[in-house]
Amino acid sequence: MTISETFNRLSAGDTSATRILERLRSRIDRLEPSLNALCHVDWEGAFAAAEESEQRWRSGRQLGSLDGIPLHIKDNIFVRDVPCTWGSRLYETFVPNQDDWSVTRLRQQGAVLFAKTNSPEFALAGITTNDLFGTTRNPYDQSRTPGGSSGGAVAATMAGFGFGGLATDAGGSIRRPSGYSGAVGLRTSPGAVRRTSGFPAIANDFQTIGPIASNIEDLSILFNAVRCTAKDVKLPRRQDVRIRVILDAGLQTIVSEIESATRHAAAVLKDQGYHTDEIIAPWNRAEVEYAFRVMSASGVAHLASFHDKDLWQEKVTRPMQRTAEFGNEQKAVDYVRALEIVSKLRAMAASEFDNRTIWLMPTSPCTAWSIDEDYPQFIAGQPAEPRDSSVYAPVVNAMAATGLALPAGTDSIGLPIGVQLVAGQGQEDLVLTVGEDLARQLGDFQAPPRILDLCRDLGPEG
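RESULT FIELD:
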């Protein structure tokens, strides 16, 4: 059931915010112990918000299209009076006293915020596990990862824990997990969603807040609820939009079903009147990886400088300590080189994306891998390096671009395949419009069969 359908049922008096929340709690009680998508559930606050929503509906004073709709928030975004750990023991007792701006926007429209979703330490990993809350599993195959760092958010969404929520993307953290789990996710470009409070920006402006949902209609509603930019009402006609397919991005291997699914998505758009062609990636993969590594490691080193050395060594995992050490080893010339690479990429993006051009790429060259591995050991039968699974992701952040992840089928064993539509800074409405055309033909992912079997007796709100 979508947000709009639920809103209509609320409007007709066929259900209520507390009834929806009660069924949601039953669903979470059944599925969460094995999925481990949530790191904190605030039932007291959620039921209080649901009761306030019911009072507004009874008096005809509903706040907006999200009034009474349960949503979750990633555990690196501040929610007032709710623990926010950033996946680290360093912040295991931290409770913010204010909402981030996007959270305030959701509250202003009546959303019921019920949980925080799991994240790896400092949201800097391609899987979702940490020393505080353990490992999140993929709802389609719990022996596999949902990816990271927004693995908790996509797992919760596709398990039916609410109607979606907010997460962050600094190097693919919304798009890659969405692809691995069949979700729809929007990496917004800098400035589209305001940030007023939060943890230190260790990823510079690479990280932005964006929504995750199970379908593009709900995603658009969530984005419009938190955006701080005006909606673009002068979008080009289909025949004036160029879809540029990118499969060759400097990696020798890609799962064949992913290559086929990406080309099929392009064919679907071509049939609808869009102009399509295929190009080789116009960026240098090694340069993107260099800039991302230097800037993110320097950010972690900067974060470490805020804390007592002994506390940092006691609370922070050894891998992240090594990241900080690498960041401290960088010289000014290294950071300047990274900035020069980013400047070059943004100049290229400004030239390439003219409000009529979209890149169509996979979200990843592989589907979800074993829960026991930090990265896939093999891609398409070939040995893989740690960053190979992210070859299509960080460049979008470095360009300050926007990227929409959509489900585009399954591989030979039924695991979700994701594609992404990428456009320039501030062009969220363009990718959402084209994404709606694509999703209309490709369809949305259904809940995994195991989840449907466990929850089939919970009724329409379950």
